[in-house]
Design a protein that fits this description.
159 residues, alpha+beta, Nucleoside Triphosphate Pyrophosphohydrolase, eight-stranded mixed beta sheet, disordered C terminus
């Protein structure tokens, strides 16, 4: 491990420690983002987690979105970006590749439903609720740079 707490894997192989999903949907009032709470502190975050052996990064993001938030949909194969955050339980920073997912279904029964809350927010409110600076910046830049579709019929994912 390096002095700044990053794992050798994320510093030298280029592969992030984790994957995450920026889950979104189009409603009559615009694009909404799905956030979930952490298991321990209840902070609002995007669904994210560890990559399993023989799993691509975007497959990991799709799996985490279902496990943590109960959503499925069309996921981009190209990452929107990469963030770092402090994993408090480990006491070190982790690198996470974030993939966008257009949500097409939301289930009431999913693996982590008893441990997390989930809620839909507009971009501005989602950004206000997220404490991690890197994640907030990625969310806002995705909107500002028009990297996610606006509320229009036939919205598509990027990548």
């Amino acid at each position: 491990m390096s002095d700044d707490g990053l794992s050798y894997k994320s510093l030298h192989s280029g592969r992030p420690d984790q994957c995450g999903a920026l889950c979104w949907r189009v409603t009559g009032s615009g694009v909404e983002v799905l956030l979930v709470t952490t298991k321990t502190s209840g902070r609002w975050i995007l669904p994210k987690g560890n990559v399993k052996r023989h799993e691509t990064m975007h497959e990991c993001a799709r799996r985490e979105a279902f496990e943590e938030a109960g959503v499925t949909g069309r996921i981009g194969k190209k990452a929107l970006g990469r963030i770092e955050y402090l994993k408090r339980s480990l006491g070190r920073r982790l690198s996470v590749s974030i993939f966008q997912m257009l949500v097409t279904a939301q289930e009431d029964d999913y693996p982590e439903r008893k441990f997390r809350r989930r809620a839909w927010f507009g971009f501005a409110e989602a950004a206000e609720r997220i404490e991690e600076a890197d994640l907030r910046a990625l969310l806002l830049s995705s909107l500002e740079q028009d990297r996610l579709p606006t509320a229009r019929p036939g919205s598509q994912i990027i990548g």
